[in-house]
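Appendix B. Raw example, untouched.
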Amino acid sequence: MSWAMAERMLQGVGDAALGEWREAGHGGVVHIRRRLALGEADHLVVRDIRGTAEQRMRIRALLRDAPHLRRLVS
């Protein structure tokens, strides 16, 4: 059931023929990653924030909102 729901949510997004990865987690959680279809990325702006103040700010905000994730950080 979870896979079908994830597939429905991705209808019209990406192109599985270009690459798709499926992962199943605990509690029935599933995750589908799919490459963008041709033309989908034309209007996206992508910035690499690794090692920047923005990255640190986003991580702090995430850990503030989801403190249980701290145990996943070594």
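End of appendix B.
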